Amino acid sequence: MIPLSELRPTRAELAEMIRLASPVVLAQVGVMLMGVVDTAMVGRVGADAVAAVALGHIYWVNLTILGVGILMALDPVVSQAFGAGDVPGVRKGVQRGVVLAILLTIPVMLALMPSQWVFTAVHQPASVIPVAARWARWSSLGALPFFLFMALSRSLNGMGNARPALIAIITGNVVNVVLNWLLIYGHGGFPALGAVGSSVSTVVGRWVMLAVMLYSGRTLLIPALKPWLPASFHMRPLMRMVAVGAPVAFQQWLEIGVFSGGAMVLGWFGPTALASHEIAISLAALTFMVPLGLSAASASMVGRAIGRGDMPAARRDAVAAIAVGLGFMTAAALFFGLFPGQLAGLFIADPETLALSASLISIAALFQMFDGIQGVATGVLRGTADTRVPMLIHLGGFWGIGAPVGLWLALRTSLGPRGVWWGYVAALIAVAGLQLWRVRWRLAGHIARLQVEHTAEHPVPSER
């Protein structure tokens, strides 16, 4: 039995969690806000334009989420090295993250090219496909800055400084809003590109974000990137980082894949259902950025505690993160439940789309707390370098429960599009409970520091 003193965070630890998590949370919200703003501004063009953005965005997310998950291997690698005072280990981790980001860009750019064929093959609305395909092809130009930004921001998080990423995201969002106004509606003499204009502005915003972060984070990034170490190109450590990150990547895809698959099903019901899904999922994803930011902060804090051999601190950090995440998502659930129509009205005026969007937002209110628990819990586990079991939990919860339940309710009952969202509720309840159990079990004993070098002095620890 773990003593209560090892589970109750101290005031200093709560303050450290809030200090580290606040800029990470704001940064995550900022990343998602770019897409939410795109949806809201495109919504003034019409439901078909929102549906096109939804389709293009779903394809982009499904292609990039695997790469983002692989780069999350930087959480334990950099944070544990930083906690142990291992400067060469931090440098090699950051540089290998850059190498992986460049390598991940190539297949994503290639896969975005045949998007029109993909959308046709999955039977999406014909009126939406051409615009969605152009949106996806333009977004390919933002793949490299996107992955580099993710690699460097996770490295900075691991070193306990999320401020440069936050500054970059705020700047990128301002650029995105201004360019959306010019390119979606054709103001200032620019062509009115509609939904495609939001993709162009997002690409520019991503390049701006990368440049701003490199500048604002130069104090930590320059020593981490210079001198460049030949060992950063060594294949075996890179593949071990991929081995740590790949289960995270697959785990995230399992979650995103269920939501994206649900969108494909909603597309069978027509543009109105697909546009309504995009509005509701944009809001749900926006609130989820808070537990996702806490997830990154908890991975860093738990990883640093393990790096310095302080398991009691790791346990207290985990409890603090989960409690804060649950508190926020409880408030989000109340807000969604009380004001679904008003929230939907921020995006669309079409009465049919507005009504369906509001009903989906009401369902989203029911899974907010469970989404928060599982989001933070997986970050805690990632800080311990535990990635395989959380992946299997996601597989069982989202695809063993959520997908079949949602598909059956949508196609075999009168719920129609709403049935897909009830499947999300079932999945998140199951996943939250299992991930919470895994955190309790994983942190019950001692955890050795992760080593990707796999030398005789530093063997790779076996997973509990």
Can you summarize the main beta sheet?
none
Low-confidence stretches: 455-464
Distance between the termini: 18 Å
Number of domains: 1
Which structural class do the helices and strands define? mainly alpha
Strand content: under 5%
Coarse morphology: globular
Task: Calculate the mean pLDDT score and round it.
Answer: 87
What is the helix fraction of residues, given as a range?
A: over 70%
Q: Order of SSEs, N→C? A: HHHHHHHHHHHHHHHHH
Supply the number of helical segments: 17
How much is the radius of gyration in Å?
Answer: 21 Å
Compute the number of strand runs.
0
Plain-language structure description:
This protein is mainly α. It has one domain. Helix content is 79%, strand content 0%. Helix 2 (47-71) runs parallel beside helix 6 (129-139) and helix 3 runs parallel beside helix 12. The chain is globular and about 55 Å long. The two termini are 18 Å apart. The model is unreliable at 455-464 (pLDDT under 50).
Short description:
The chain has 464 residues and is mainly α. Helix content is 79%, strand content 0%. It is globular.
Strand and helix layout:
Layout: H1 11-42, H2 47-71, H3 74-83, H4 87-112, H5 115-121, H6 129-139, H7 143-158, H8 163-183, H9 195-216, H10 218-225, H11 235-267, H12 271-307, H13 311-338, H14 340-345, H15 351-383, H16 388-412, H17 417-442
